[in-house]
Design brief:
Blueprint lengths: L2 H22 L6 H18 L6 H11 L18 H5 L10 H5 L15 H10 L4 H6 L11 E2 L2 H14 L7 E5 L3 E7 L30 E7 L1 E10 H6 L3 H23 L16 E3 L12 H8 L11 E5 L3 H6 L1 E4 L4 E4 L1 E4 L2 E4 L2 E6 L11 E4 L4 E14 L8 E14 L5 E2 L6 E2 L2 E4 L3
Parallel strand pairs: 2-14, 6-18, 7-12
Antiparallel strand pairs: 1-14, 3-4, 5-15, 7-13, 8-9, 10-11, 11-12, 13-18, 14-15, 16-17
Length: 444
């Protein structure tokens, strides 16, 4: 625990001690008590803003990416998807992440429950809007008080995150940066032009013994992740809140599933203005040409071959196809002629529930563009996309707005950002061919 953390812990103990002293004396907190607790909150918020580069973040990074990572973060090798860091990122597989692998120290880590006995008790207390000192104390955890709402304890945040991860496309496969403040800067190299240099300026020379070396310098650029606030609002009846069996499980499923859907959609199609920059709107996206005289709203085999030819070679083994569901009828008709006997091999195949297109996995979704539009089919290496996540999630309930219908509104607030690690497509050694980890097809 560093000095800042020790100071925060000391202040927290004082904050709790004021309440406990009042309870011990069988009295309510007086004005002096309340003012001191308010001052403590402000002190902790000030200290929390200084936490971005503490040892805690370094420890989490070691857990996420392994002890042998060179440099401060995975993004320092952006533009080199052949790096082994992008293949496994330490001991965490590219797919199948859960909350603990993103923020905690291992599968056996005991997560903070905020002194609640279960998720059911926590959500029941929040929905009821009754006073509970455990909720009051949770407000001290690092976050943005102006967002409002009750900070969900990590044990129950894990439930929300895990429900979301189950149905997401991007987050389980991309590079993840835990964020401990609203902004985080990461370093990356320029993508460059391989016909003249690497990484924006690195050039190698063949020299004889004793020759003077020629200087060359790669260019480093700075990327900034700034947490964007994602707010979900949903309505439910007060009878359901009071009487529904396993109501907290349904609430977690609803809230977590919604969080994942909107987050995933932004990673794919976000504008970057007040939301993450989606792959389909990024400067590094390559748009492969359609074929001459190609009919509208069609997909043909040559389209797929063209897209695969524009994918960065090191991204082949990690690439997946992301296809809008409206493309399915066209994809099922695609085939490859074999020999001279008229036999045909389908381009789209299925085995044990997994679809593949030209040997790469296929994910069908509604989150991209429809058939015939640019972005209806995407070939992507998601290890070259970075998502910044704040650990905390806030939840609150209001019974006022829908008072006449005896209903309540639930509000979920999460903070996240994302953008590709590449700022442009890469020009290869021939000086004319461009490749990228992200390739789509132009409108037809």
């Amino acid at each position: 625990m560093n000095d800042i953390q020790k100071k925060m812990a000391s202040l927290y103990e004082e904050y709790v001690g004021i309440r406990k002293a009042a309870e011990k004396e069988s009295r309510s907190m007086n004005k002096a008590d309340i003012k001191r607790r308010s001052d403590i909150k402000k002190e902790i918020d000030t200290l929390a803003a200084q936490m971005e580069t503490t040892d805690e973040e370094k420890e989490l990074r070691t857990l996420l990416y392994g002890p042998d990572e060179p440099g401060s973060n995975a993004a320092t090798i952006a533009g080199d998807p052949s790096s082994s860091l992008h293949a496994t990122r330490g001991n965490i597989p590219v797919e199948g992440r859960d909350y603990r692998s993103l923020f905690c120290r291992g599968d056996n880590t005991s997560l903070d429950t905020g002194n609640f006995r279960s998720a059911g008790e926590f959500f029941s207390v929040v929905v009821s809007r009754r006073f509970d000192p455990r909720l009051q104390e949770r407000g001290l955890t690092v976050g943005t008080p102006s967002d409002g709402g009750i900070l969900v304890p990590p044990e129950y945040s894990a439930m929300l995150h895990n429900v979301a991860l189950e149905s997401e496309i991007v987050l389980p496969r991309c590079t993840v940066e835990p964020m401990f403040s609203n902004e985080k800067k990461i370093g990356a190299t320029e993508i460059g032009n391989h016909s003249s240099h690497l990484f924006g300026g690195m050039i190698a020379y063949w020299k004889g013994e004793g020759s003077t070396l020629t200087e060359s310098t790669p260019k480093i650029r700075e990327m900034t992740l700034q947490a964007k606030k994602l707010t979900a609002l949903f309505k439910f009846s007060n009878e359901w809140a009071a009487d529904a069996p396993n109501g907290e499980a349904k609430l977690v499923s609803l809230a977590g599933g919604g969080l994942g859907w909107w987050r995933d959609s932004a990673f794919l199609t976000g504008t970057g203005a007040g939301q993450p920059l989606g792959i389909l709107n990024s400067d590094c996206l390559i748009v492969a040409d359609k074929e001459p005289e190609q009919a509208a709203n069609t997909l043909i085999y040559d389209n797929l071959a063209s897209m695969l030819g524009r994918l960065h070679p090191a991204s082949f083994s990690r690439s997946v196809w992301v296809c809008h569901v409206s493309t399915v009828p066209q994809l099922l008709k695609l085939s490859i002629d074999v020999g001279t006997g008229g036999s045909a091999y389908p381009a789209l195949s299925e085995s044990n529930g997994t679809w593949k297109l030209l040997t790469r996995p296929v994910i069908f979704t509604e989150k991209t563009e429809t058939l015939g539009s640019q972005g209806d089919i995407l070939l992507a290496d998601f290890s070259q996309y970075v998502a910044g996540l704040r650990q905390d999630i806030r939840f609150d309930v209001s019974k006022d707005y829908a008072f006449a219908s005896d209903e309540s509104y639930g509000r979920l607030i999460a903070r996240v950002d994302g953008q590709p690690l590449w700022d442009e497509a890469l020009t290869l050694k021939d000086g004319s061919t461009t490749v990228s980890p992200f390739v789509t097809l132009e409108a037809r």
